[in-house]
Amino acid sequence: MNIADFLRKPFGCSRVLFLSVFAFIVLGGYSAFASDGSAHSVFVANNVWMLLATFLVFIMHLGFAALETGLTRSKNTVNILFKNTFIISAGILTYALMGFNLMYPGDFNLIGGGIFGFAGFGISSPAGAEGLIEYADGGYTYYTDFIFQAMFAATAATIVSGAVAERIKLSSFLIFATVFVAIVYPIAGSWKWGGGWLDQMGFYDFAGSTLVHSVGGWGGLVGAYLLGPRVGKYLASGAMRPIPGHSLPLLAIGVFLLWMGWFGFNGGSVLSADPKLISLVIVTTSLAAAAGALGAAFTSWGTFKYPDLSMALNGVLAGLVGITAGADVVSPGEAVIIGLVAGIIVVFAVSFFDKIRIDDPVGAISVHLVCGVWGTLAVGIFGGPDFSIVTQFIGVVAYGVFTVVCAFIIFYAIKMAIGIRVSEEEERRGLDITEHGMESYPDFQAVSQV
After folding, report:
1. What is the block-wise mean pLDDT of the chain (450 residues), using blocks of 10 residues?
2. CB pairs under 8 A, 24+ apart, for 400-403?
3. Is 433 within 8 Å of 73 (Cβ atoms)?
4. Which residue from 297, 348, 352, 375 puts its CA 20 to 30 A from 100's CA?
5. Would you put residue 441 in left (φ > 0), alpha (ψ -120 to 50) or beta?
């Protein structure tokens, strides 16, 4: 086969692009380190890796969209996809406008003690074009840092989207997501990643089990509580009625996209092209995900008498969330334990929230909040003498209280102003028709009785 025939094949150009990028990273990065070890060579390799990690984290938003779509009913598919499109778009813009400088204020100039600071509106490299190599001790550019962190910021709001799916007003959610990404998440992030008071205390969260996932989970919990359950979720007798999603294939595709994206989420959080540490992080991440899948699969099999695919897939995510706080400080064996426990926990967490009538269509609260808390505490258990479970617990509580209070204020203010829930009739017809005036599957659309 000649080159022209290869390029005409499906995905031929994509293969060339992928191989070119891969060769550039591996050969270019390796030669940079292997030559004279100059600061500029290291700088280039770091930026290439972090930008690739950024692309992987961006793909996670496609994974979240597919997962949320698969676990909800077909009559709400357009609504789910619109929300996910809005989150990444508005999230990047609002994070650029003010979120980034709230999260990394430099000086906590508004409330001292590492509590609250703001470096101004907009993004502009403080070093200027000629001094970018000086940013972050020569590790990477200001703009590389911004775009990588912007992907994380949007993720927190995406988690909320799943927990409030199928009954929240579109306009209400868009307002909440904008404020959450612009203000709440950045202030929370500044306490650790911005050098704030929790960082000074010794709290540790490598890539965001608490800072991203639990913060999003707490926001989702408040939203689900204030909205109440979906119509038909609970019978008059109080019994819970399952409302299955419309596409397990989409769910599976979404989870595997998320697993792939997590290599950038955790691997990029090394913040350098250090091959030794990146390889450890990717190994611990994979082991935890695999252990989480098996833990959830066998726990649900034993509990419900059938091997539940959706539980196994949520177990993958549970393991990924659980390992995110300490992926760089635990051993492979410890990663398996963390992932296995997370997979077991998520099964019981889903059942628990169903029993207390917190309706979470995609299990976001169980996966991101509960397993995020577990993963953060696990650093204090497995991370070694440099980490304290007491300090980790203080961080978990601080983030929980802050996020719950902020999310409640935002949701309640929106509720008082314009309302947060669609009418029962709109919910029964589906949000695709009532909110968007279109159908996701016009040739196959069926009206749900729930």
Report:
1. 48 48 47 56 88 96 97 96 96 95 84 82 68 56 92 94 96 97 96 94 96 97 96 86 94 98 96 92 98 97 93 98 97 98 98 95 97 98 94 98 98 97 95 94 63
2. 400/214, 400/218, 402/187, 402/188, 403/184, 403/188, 403/214, 403/215, 403/218, 403/219, 403/222
3. no
4. 375
5. beta
> Quick count: other Cβ atoms within 10 Å of Cβ 394?
15
Indicate the domain borders of the chain: 55-436
CA 238 vs CA 226, 233, 260, 356, 358: distances in Å? 19, 10, 40, 10, 13
Question: In sequence order, what DSSP letters do the residues of 243-264 get, joined into one string?
Answer: ---S-HHHHHHHHHHHHHHHHH
Contacts of 204 (CB under 8 A, 6+ apart): 325, 326, 329, 379, 383, 387, 391, 392
**pLDDT of 31-54, one tens digit each?**
444 444 577 788 888 999 999 999
Gyration radius of the chain over CA positions: 22
**pLDDT attached to residue 3:** 44
Q: Give φ, ψ of 168 to 5 degrees.
A: -90, 145
pLDDT of residue 442: 83
Retrieve residue 362's tokens: 């995609």
- Spell out the long-range contacts of 178-181 with Cβ–Cβ below 8 A and sequence spacing 24 or more: 178/90, 178/94, 179/410, 180/156, 180/219, 180/407, 180/410, 181/87, 181/90, 181/91, 181/94, 181/95, 181/99, 181/153, 181/154, 181/156, 181/157
Greatest distance between any 2 Cα atoms in the chain: 74
Which secondary structure element, helix H or strand E, spans residue 90, and what is its range? helix 77-94
Report how far residue 177's alpha carbon sits from residue 167's, in angstroms, rounded to the nearest whole number: 16
The pLDDT tens digits for 226-265 are: 999 999 999 887 788 999 999 999 999 999 999 999 999 9
Whole-number pLDDT of residue 14: 52
- Tokens (6 digits) for 287: 């082991």
* Beta strand ranges found along 359-413 (DSSP E): none
- What gap in Å lies between CA 215 and CA 400, rounded to an integer? 7
Q: What pLDDT is attached to residue 239?
A: 84
Could you tell me the fold of the domain covering 55-436? Ammonium transporter fold (1.10.3430)
Burial label, 21 (beta-carbon count in 10 A; 0-12, 13-18, 19+): middle
* CA 352 – CA 396 distance, rounded (Å): 20
Tokens of 186: 């950045």
Q: Which two tokens stand for residue 291?
A: 């252990």
